[in-house]
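Structure first, sequence second, as always.
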């Protein structure tokens, strides 16, 4: 088994142990429907699982001379702290601005030229990551890499810097009018505690 396969298996085990994979009938943020759901906060509430996955990201970028880790609120706060702890550097958090995008608040600054690792929990469209990158660039920091817990784009995420996902998934989704679960009258579930844990194929 390759190192990449071993890493994927370790990530799967961490998510499964935390009960983060759910199966039922869900409405995603995009408005599309699907049978599979990843409850990211099941991972983030499990210190052991979070630490193990953060270590995978830190190891991937251990030779990239990272000087700072940045993550978007909310899920990126815990992850940025934990990855930064493994790398022995500081962490900052970017928040939503009043007029869109992401901004630094609470006295956080990024010195010009600082090599920054962007981290996030789940990438679905890549919007949060792109906004975080833009915030760092506007602060004259240098985005040296991106690390995420889960890439839900099925590997279609495109970046101009080194990119690593602990786990890559591609959940089938449907427009509401084409949803087979709706056609079968399967009730829509609330993510937390409303569906059974499952292991993806």
């Amino acid at each position: 088994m390759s190192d990449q396969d071993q890493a994927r298996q370790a990530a799967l085990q961490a998510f499964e142990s935390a009960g983060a994979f759910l199966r039922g009938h869900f409405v995603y943020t995009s408005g599309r429907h699907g049978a599979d759901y990843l409850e990211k906060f099941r991972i983030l509430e499990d210190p052991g699982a979070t630490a193990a996955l953060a270590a995978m990201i830190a190891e991937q970028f251990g030779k990239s001379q990272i000087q700072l880790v940045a993550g978007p609120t909310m899920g990126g706060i815990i992850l940025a702290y934990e990855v930064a702890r493994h790398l022995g550097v500081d962490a900052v958090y970017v928040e939503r601005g009043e007029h869109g995008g992401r901004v630094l608040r609470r006295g956080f600054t990024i010195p010009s030229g600082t090599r920054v690792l962007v981290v996030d929990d789940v990438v679905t469209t890549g919007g949060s990551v792109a906004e975080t990158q833009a915030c760092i660039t506007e602060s004259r920091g240098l985005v040296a890499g991106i690390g995420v817990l889960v890439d839900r784009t099925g590997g279609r995420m495109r970046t101009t810097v080194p990119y690593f996902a602990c786990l890559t998934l591609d959940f089938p989704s449907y427009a509401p009018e084409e949803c087979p679960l709706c056609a079968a009258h399967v009730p829509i579930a609330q993510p937390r505690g409303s569906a059974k844990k499952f292991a993806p194929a």
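Margin note: The chain has one domain: 3-197.
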